[in-house]
Amino acid sequence: MTTNFKSFRRLALAVCAGAATISIASTALAQTPWPTKPVKIVVPFAPGGTTDILARAIAPELSKAFGQPFIVDNRAGAGGNLGADIVAKSPADGYTLLMGTVGTHGINKSLYSRLPYDPQKDFAPITLVAAVPNVMVMQTEKAKTLGINNVPDFIRYAKAHPGQLNMASSGNGTSIHLAGELFKSMTGTFMTHIPYSGSGPAMMGMVSGTVDVMFDNLPSAMPQIKGGKLKAFAVTSSQRSAAMPELPTIEEAAKLKGYEASSWFGLLAPAGTPPAVVLKLQQETAKALNSPAIKEKLQTQGAIPSGNSPQEFAKFIDAEIKKWAPVVKASGAKVD
């Protein structure tokens, strides 16, 4: 009996010691500092577009806040799906983030028949970075040559010359593409869609005159508009932009009731990323977006900074997916 008691006591002590070791290890793991190495922000489009501009605006601020480099990694392709899929399948350790867009996390679920990732289940939303209107633009000299000064002029010309104009976008399924498809369906015009690997390359095509029209994000188009190389006709949002208040909305200019196709951009991590890491990223991103320098810089470019909570951003994404589904269907756009 005594021997059995001693054996039981030794076993109990061993179990307690093991439990204590596991507890200490778990606590140590939970308290492991982050980040201890560089963090990558995947931009699912080529350099030069608004997604890239916003990522490069906040990356230095996050680098300063966390004491580790935040590196922008451009992975263009498939309307943003390539880069988004890379992040969705990355380790959930906080070292690979995505600058997602209305395309990757709002439109593409309805636009693509097969999406390699689930925009809701495969990601941990961090924060909405900014929202921006798109702007309808043509190369200035080309618009002048064709006698197109505004949206009604453009519609008249496109109807009189069906198929003779082409429309650039940053890729199949992007908000830039869908804004144009919605315009075509609501005006009864036809333009050949020319998808590029990002807004930057598409803008080069616009400036060179290779393509005719584009519904680009306002921040990436603004320098070319101010430089006189592009003529802006209207913004795609439901209200005029504070950055260019002289521009009407497309709804106003063409009397297209209900036309609205704005863009947004936000940080996301792979699903399963520790909530503490997600919260740290949200807090520092919000702090950067609310700093006078960054706030003024983005607003001057036509972007509206956000910085909302992960929970708010998750609800926003859910609402955007529901919002764009009928728009995609009505536009007739579909990508296999």
Topology:
Blueprint: H1 2-30, E1 39-43, H2 50-66, E2 70-74, H3 81-88, E3 96-101, H4 102-111, E4 123-132, E5 134-139, H5 140-146, H6 151-160, E6 166-169, H7 175-187, E7 192-195, H8 199-208, E8 213-217, H9 218-226, E9 230-235, H10 250-254, E10 263-270, H11 275-289, H12 292-300, E11 304-305, H13 310-331
Parallel strand pairs: 1-2, 1-3, 6-7, 6-8
Antiparallel strand pairs: 3-10, 4-10, 4-11, 5-8, 5-9
Helix pairs in contact: 2-11, 4-13, 7-13
How is this structure best described in words?
The protein is of the alpha/beta class and 336 residues long. Helix content is 49%, strand content 18%. Strand 1, helix 2 and strand 2 form a beta-alpha-beta unit. The longest helix has 29 residues. The radius of gyration is 24 Å and the shape is globular.
Q: Structural class of the secondary elements?
A: alpha/beta
Distance between the termini: 75 Å
Mean pLDDT: 90
Number of strands: 11
Number of alpha- plus pi-helical segments: 13
Provide the β-strand percentage band. 15-25%
* Helical proportion, percent range: 40-55%
How are strands sequenced across the largest beta sheet?
Answer: 2-1-3-10-4-11
Structural Rg? 24 Å
Provide the low-confidence segments as ranges.
19-30
Quick tags:
13 helices; 49% helix; alpha/beta; 336 residues; globular; six-stranded mixed beta sheet; five-stranded mixed beta sheet
